[in-house]
Amino acid sequence: MVYKKSVSERTFDVVNIIFLSILVIICAYPLYYVLMCSLSDPYQLMKHKGILLKPLGFTLNGYKLVFQNPSIRTGFFNTLFYVIAGTFVNMLLTAMSAYVISRKNLMCHKFLMIMITIPMFFSGGLIPFYLQVQRLGLINTRWALIFPSALSIWNLIILRTAFNSVPESLIESAKLDGANDFTILFKIIIPLSKATLAVIALFYAVGHWNSWFNAMIFLRDRTKFPLQLILREILISNETREMMNNLPRTSAQFIQAEAYKTLIKYCTIIVSTLPIVCVYPFIQKYFVKGVMLGSTKE
Amino acid sequence: MKSVEIGKALTVKEESFFKKLKKDFSMNKYIYLMALPMIVYFILFCYIPMYGIIIAFKDFSPRLGIMGSKWVGFKHFYNFFKSIYFGRTFKNTALISLYSLLWGFPAPIILALLINEVRINKFKKAVQTITYLPHFISLVVICGLIIDFTATDGLLNFILSKFGVTPVNWLTKPEWFRTIYISSGIWQSMGWDSIIYLAALTNINPSLYEAAMIDGANRWQQLVHITLPSIAPTIVIMLILNIGGLMSVGYEKIILLYNPLTYTTSDVISSYVYRKGILGANYSFSTAVGLIESAIGFTLIYFANKFSKKISEISLW
Fold first, then answer.
1. What is the residue extent of each domain of chain B?
2. How far apart are CA B37 and CA B43, in angstroms?
3. SS (H, E, C) B131-172
């Protein structure tokens, strides 16, 4: 009896591991495929169909072209600016706001909590939001990517939970020593909540790195475009053109252009994704922690 | 907690509300100073846009402003209901979100349960790390990959041709749009969404399993009688949240994936709002359309929550 059960359990374990392995391959292979394509010889790549396990030939020309391309380069530096400046504003605002709403003896505490809760369930929608940004004169300025997304309520609540866990007695004694609230926040609470702060800074930074929609509707000048918007032009628009006309590929120049276009496409994907994929394994556990913190209901 | 109570008791000295408020302000002036940017943010980017919804009932022109524009009542709503777009976008939104819920909601739960059954810790960690990864890839890249893989000479067609399927450009086929949209969505978020269930699973008291094993319960019975009931509250909360989102399909991914050839199945309310409002500058009309969507969403979450409160005493508020 005991032996029999362990056999069926063992079969289940094996099947389970095989199934999960397939899932892992499905999750990871698309990116691996793109990486292999980006290192391949463009002409071979054009003729090739199907699965790739190693690059076809080997060349870094695609990456050279990507880094020489002025719009990709400006896009990259613009994104860097949006990530750094945006995350800084996010963190400053979120930290101060979280401190405010963690002070429960404030008379306006309830009012502030209501003010924060309503937008979680109801918003003006895309158009009134757009018009408001326009009215503030932010259209086609870099601030349009920073101020309208300066605070995420979700992150605010995560941080508030962390601030609440700082012992009240610590704050009380600091107050008795004459510390004001800024000192308490920056000298006591923030150093004690470093882990959570790191988590939400990462959430914000990844959000800025990946965001493209606000840039698309708010920015006009290409010189201000973040990388994702340039990427959209390369990835999405390129393909729609191909979709619409099935021109016969005759001239050699045309083939060369097409081949390199494909290569550049894959290289740009890697350039825009690699920073996240590289830091991701190290910070993964903090992200997971962030989700857990967010899910603890008070 | 106690100090708060004492504080309350002390301040109740029959002072007027405003006097108390003034005292509170002067006592906590730095806190209120810190609250200022937050209040400004919420007013500027949350509450003024909410107020801006009234342009749905006006003929808004940027020259006249919100106040100056003429009231037109329900004209824009009426026009939307009359147009062919109402039926189409409504149906597409409902179907995409319904199927997303149907397929996408159980996926992370099943994944979490399977990961939970793995006894080899290293493998478990690896599976988790890799399945979370797609969550962090930008939508632009994801959609770029989808377009690339589903193209006529793409990877998907190569694999399918082994099974005798003739290659087509899948994204130009309206009948396949939902499948592509939903399966890629599951691919991207399944791992990340499973975190919350895995957390719930680790919180289950191991002695329950020990007791069950002594009673001779096999793993399936343990799953049905211990694991599932233990994570049921988490499942219900997630379900309520998901039902609230039933009538809202985000525009970002739709805009990246759709094209005029697939509008019959891919055009949802929010992408229609984007096209009419941002691209077409029909501000009042598109605000009205957006308002319908968020009103439905709010109603859904309200009733889902109410229903859940009644049957299981689990609720969001």
1. 2-71, 84-312
2. 10
3. HHHHHHCCHHHHHHHHHHHHCCCCHHHHHHHCCCCCCCCHHH
Mean local confidence (pLDDT), A105-134: 90
Distance of alpha carbon A100 from alpha carbon A42, whole angstroms: 56
Question: In chain A, what are the domain boundaries?
Answer: 2-47, 69-246
Residue B12 has pLDDT above 80, yes or no: no
Instruction: Reply yes or no on whether the pLDDT at B240 is more than 50.
Output: yes
CB B299 within 8 A of CB A123: no
Determine contact: B133 vs chain A, CB below 8 A: yes
Q: How far apart are CA A127 and CA B53, in angstroms?
A: 9
Q: For A247-256, B20-29, B203-212, which range has the lowest pLDDT when averaged over its residues?
A: A247-256
Q: What ipTM describes this predicted complex?
A: 0.86
Taking contacts as CB-CB distances below 8 angstroms, the residues of chain A near B122 are: none
Determine the distance in angstroms separating the CA of B256 from the nearest CA of chain A, rounded to an integer. 7
On whether the A69-246 domain is CATH 1.10.3720.10, my answer is yes
**Nearest C-alpha in A relative to B112:** A20
3-state helix/strand/coil string of A22-73: HHHHHHHHHHHHHHHHHCCCHHHHHHCCCCCCCCCCCCCHHHHHHHHCHHHH
Contact B117 A99 (CB under 8 A): no
Q: How sure is the predictor about A250, in pLDDT bands with cuts at 50, 70 and 90? A: low
pLDDT for A2 equals 44
pLDDT at A249 over 80: no
A69 to chain B nearest CA, in Å?
Answer: 19
The pLDDT of residue A89: 97
Residues B308 and B317: their CA atoms lie apart, in Å, by 11
Please tell me the predicted confidence (pLDDT) of residue A99.
95
Residue of B nearest to A95 (CA): B34
Are the beta carbons of A239 and B119 separated by less than 8 Å? Answer: no
Q: How many CB atoms lie within 10 A of CB A26?
A: 13
Across chain A, which distance is largest between two alpha carbons, in Å?
82
- Residue in A with minimal Cα distance to B316: A297
Which residue blocks in chain A are alpha helix, DSSP H? 2-38, 42-47, 61-68, 70-102, 109-121, 126-135, 153-164, 168-176, 181-183, 190-192, 194-210, 213-218, 227-232, 238-244, 252-295
Q: Which of the four CATH numbers 1.10.287.70, 1.10.3720.10, 1.10.1740.10, 2.40.50.180 does domain B84-312 have? A: 1.10.3720.10
For chain B, the distance separating the N- and C-terminal CA atoms, rounded to the nearest angstrom, is 22
Cβ atoms of residues B7 and B27 within 8 Å = no
**What angle is formed at CA B120 by the lines to CA B118 and CA B124, rounded to 5 degrees?**
60
For chain A, what's the residue count?
Answer: 298
Q: How many CB pairs (< 8 A) connect A and B? A: 258
